[in-house]
Every structure is written in C-alpha cells, then in structure tokens.
Design a protein that fits this description.
Layout lengths: L11 H11 L11 H11 L3 E3 L6 E3 L1 H20 L3 E2 L5 E3 H4 L3 H7 L4 E6 L2 E9 L4 H11 L8 E10 L14 E11 L2 H22 L5 E4 L11 E9 L4 E12 L1 H6 L2 E3 L5 E3 L1 E8 L1 H10 L16 E5 L7 H17 L4 E3 L7 H10 L4 E5 L1 H5 L2 E6 L5 E5 L3 H27 E3 L3 H9 L3 E6 L3 H10 L8 E6 L20 E8 L1
Helix pairs in contact: 3-7
Keywords: Aminoacyl-tRNA synthetase, ATP-binding, Ligase, Nucleotide-binding, Protein biosynthesis
Enzyme class: ligase
Protein name: proline--tRNA ligase
C-alpha cells in the first residue's frame, strides 16, 4: 500500500493498522486474478455500484465525467461533419422490429419486451431498443423524398438494452448501457463509404488520443459483421492480461438493405427513383471498461489526464507543531492557480484522514498527479509532485508550477499510450500453421494469420476452439495489411490465403 511511502514516521505496525482500519488497498492482484481485480477496482475506485438487477450498474460521477469528456470531443467533431443530434423513443413495436429479418435475428435473443401495463396485459408487446435502425428508418422514408433531402445525418446520445447474456461484466457486458448511435443516409455509395472511414478515425482518436489505448482499424468478417448490414469496420483493442480482444467501436455501411425494407427512396437529379445508401455507427461506455482493464494496476485505477475528472489532487502534509493553516492556505492557493490555468485540480483538506490514507485513496481513484505540501515545501517555496502512472517524485518551485504541470500531464498521457502499445505489441503473434495458431491462442496472444476469407472455415475454427475460455474468432482484417507473399496458404484450410486477419478470443 502506498502509505508505506508516506512522509509520516509511522512504525510498520501502525501502517498495517491503517490499512485494516480503512479497508484501503485491493485484495486481488491484476496478474493473479484479473476478473476479481477488475470487479474490485471499478467499485473501490468509485466508478460503479452494483445494482439489484443482474447486469445493471450505477454509473457514479467518476465514470460520468470520463463519458462526458469523450462526449464533448466526439459531439464537436460530428457537428463539424454537419451531423445533427436528435432523440427517438425507447420503445419499438414488434412488427417494425421484425421487418429486417437478418437484423432482428442478430438481436433476437437480446431483446427485452414490455408485456404488461399495471395489471393488464398489453395487446401487442413492445420491445425496448437494442439499437435504433428499425425505430428510426420508417421516419427516414417519410422525410426523404428527393435528392435535396439528402444526405440526412442524425445522431442520438441514449441508452440501449440488450438482455440475454451470461457473465455480466461492468462496462464490458451490461444489460443497459450508454452510447451514441449515428444513422445517416446518402444518395451515393461513395459518400457512405467515405463517412464510414471518417467516423472510424474519430473512434481511433477516442481510444488513442483520449484513453491512451492502441487500437487496430479494420474490417469485420462476413460472419462477424453487423446483422443486416453490407460491411462493418471496427477499432479493435486488446487486453494483454486476459489475452482477449475487445471490439472498441463499430462503423457500419448498411448498403441499401434497410432502404429496401423501409422504402427509403428518393427522386434523383435526373428525376429517376433511387434508393438511399445508409450507415450506422456507435461507441459506448464499454470504452471506459477497456481503459480500466488496460491501465489499472494493483493500487487501483490509472486515469489518462485527458479524461480524468480530477487531474491533480493537492494534499497537505502537516507535521507536529506545524502551522496547519498556512499549509492549508498554500494548498488552496495552489489549486486556485491550477484551476485558473485550465487544469482540473482539487485539494483534499479533510482533517480526519492522515496524508498516507489520502495518498492511497486518490491512487485508488487513479488521479494522474498528486501534489504534496508540507512546512519544508512552504519554507523552500516549492511543492512535491508525484506521478500516479510510475510513482516518480519531483520537487518543483511554486513559480514555474503551472508550466511544469502542463508538461508532466502531457508526458503521462503519452507514456500511458506508449506503455500500453508496447504491451499490446508484445502480444501480437504471427502464425502460419494450425499448430502455431493453437499454441498462440493458449498463450493468450493476439494472432495475425493468413486466411482464405471463407465463412465455413471461420465457423470451423470457432467449432474446433470451443471450450471453457470461449471460442476463437476473427477480430478484424486490418486496413494496414502486411505483404502477403505469392503462394501463402491459409493457416487452417491450406487454401490460397487472401489476406492477413487478426484472430483471438474476445469479450
């Protein structure tokens, strides 16, 4: 526990007592029992609280601040693309939901139904949206009549419900979650194709620039694409501790399938009847779970400065007979100047907790930077600055504090990304044969293999790797393709390989 590193002169016994008294510190270690560690860290870090309905979680302010930071970035970017926010109802009738057969089959087991109102049965059951294609598109057909009505570009920030699953995991697999869903319609396929990639790039930026997580941009296989769509692109993250991929966010080209079902037709410039081309795209609160899994450590959360609700916590360290008020004033003054400079800083002036307890508390919550101020610091016109990501300490003169803090936070953001990328890259295993594939799978690797791109072959791999840990599947075919030498064979079917594809187990 970090209180062992405090400046107080506590004996070893006292420190143990502090831990026992406060219940601070995690019971599980990330490398030893990842599942239990994760469950503990999201609760102890005050991100979620468990709810009395399985698979539903209370998102606490510490989580919502991160969600809002991502929302502010993404919302501004899509507005630059002239995408407008709207809101559609949560409920959808059965006959509308059933309209696009492939689509509803893909979601059928997860749809939650409302069947009663008070004591009376509803004549027609109503579904709660698992996603909004079928909720929105009947109205697109009403609003789109001529080519001047296109493109129609809408987005909504909302919740969705997907009920049927085992092993709920906070953020990663929950029955209700928050997301944005964009739904756009165009006159041409070229416009739709372009937008798919533009949005995917924004998702990459969310992960890499904000959450400091490396991702692969690529295309999903036919088996793994969005049900009812033409093709699906995604950003794929990877959790080295579990050896599992995570579909980070998806951008789908729906083609004209939904336009056909919902009669989304328009009169083009030549006066001919044409069908719209559509996209849908989404990222969800799952992003936050990936961040916890990738960066968290045995002391708790580690938050990237760009999304942390509190970037800097200032803690007074009064000694016996020190002028406590002067120390508290110095802390408040420091917070004031940091906040005025645009940082998110807070002082922890609670007098019923020791500095050591506070260090542990804010480390658990993942605050990127801690500033300690004691009588010596005041005398020397300096403060002590401690990084959460690597524990490095440095004394900084008060005069240049704002500039130094700016540099340190930017360094933390960068080194979190670099450390995560290094770990992820060390897990990538290039294989060419089935035996190499199986070994890499058991070693929890992110597998890059030459593949013949046949659906039956992927189904076969799923079947053959089915087990307690879950089957292996394609994660994505990266846009950034390594060279495929002539004559390269598929790692499993032995047929000519058409592409390099990432495989692995996933959440």
């Amino acid at each position: 526990m970090s209180s062992t590193k405090t400046k107080t002169n506590d004996s070893k016994g006292r420190k143990k007592e502090v831990k026992k008294e406060t219940g601070l510190g995690l019971t599980y270690k990330k490398d030893e029992n990842f599942g239990e560690w994760y469950s503990e860290v999201v609760v102890s870090g005050e991100m979620i609280e468990y709810y009395d309905i399985s698979g539903c979680y209370i998102l606490r302010p510490w989580t919502m601040a991160i969600w809002e930071a991502l929302q502010v970035f993404f919302d501004a970017e899509i507005k630059k693309m002239n995408i407008k926010n709207c809101y559609f109802p949560l409920f959808v009738t059965e006959n509308v939901l059933q309209k696009e057969k492939d689509h509803i089959e893909g979601f059928a087991p997860e749809v939650a139904w409302v069947t009663k109102s008070g004591q009376s049965e509803l004549e027609v059951p109503i579904a709660i949206r698992p996603t909004s294609e079928t909720v929105m598109y009947p109205y697109y057909s009403k609003w789109i009549r001529g080519h001047r009505d296109l493109p129609l570009k809408l987005n909504q920030w909302c919740n969705v419900v997907r009920w049927e699953f085992s092993n709920p995991t906070p953020f990663i697999r929950s029955r209700e979650f928050l997301w944005q869903e964009g739904h756009t319609a165009f006159a041409t396929k070229e416009e739709a194709d372009q937008e798919v990639l533009d949005i995917l790039e924004l998702y990459r930026r969310i992960y890499e620039e904000y959450l400091a997580i490396p991702v692969v941009k690529g295309k999903k296989s036919e088996l793994e694409k969005f049900a009812g769509g033409l093709y699906t692109t995604s950003v794929e993250a990877f959790v080295p501790n579990t050896g599992r991929g995570v579909q980070g966010a998806t951008s789908h080209c729906l083609g004209q399938n939904f336009a056909k079902m919902f009669q989304i037709n328009f009169e083009n410039e030549k006066g001919e009847k044409a069908m719209a081309w559509q996209n849908s795209w989404a990222y969800s609160t799952r992003t936050i779970g990936v961040m916890v899994m990738v960066h968290g450590d045995d002391k708790g959360l580690v938050l990237p400065p760009k999304v942390a609700s509190v970037q800097i916590v200032v803690i007074p360290v009064p000694y016996k007979d020190a002028d406590t008020q002067a120390i508290f004033d110095a802390c408040s003054e420091t917070v004031k100047s940091l906040n005025e400079a645009g940082f998110r800083a807070e002082a922890d002036l609670r007098d019923n907790y020791s500095p050591g307890w506070k260090y542990s508390h804010w480390e658990m919550k993942g605050v990127p930077l801690r500033i300690e101020i004691g009588p010596k610091d005041i005398a020397n016109k300096q403060v002590r600055v401690v990084r959460r990501d690597n524990g490095a300490k440095v004394d900084i003169p008060v005069v240049g504090l704002v500039e130094q803090v700016k540099d340190i936070l930017s360094t933390i953001q960068e080194s979190l990304f670099n450390a995560a990328k290094e770990k992820r890259d060390a897990c990538i295993k290039v294989v060419r044969t089935w035996d190499e594939f199986l070994k890499a799978l058991n070693d929890k690797k992110l597998i890059l293999a030459p593949w013949c791109d046949e659906e039956e072959v992927e189904k076969d791999v799923k079947l053959k790797t089915k087990g307690e840990l879950g089957a292996a599947k394609t994660l994505c075919t990266p846009f950034d393709q390594p060279e495929l030498p002539e004559g390269t064979l598929c790692f499993t079917s032995g047929k000519p390989a058409k592409k390099w594809t990432y495989w692995g187990r996933s959440y």
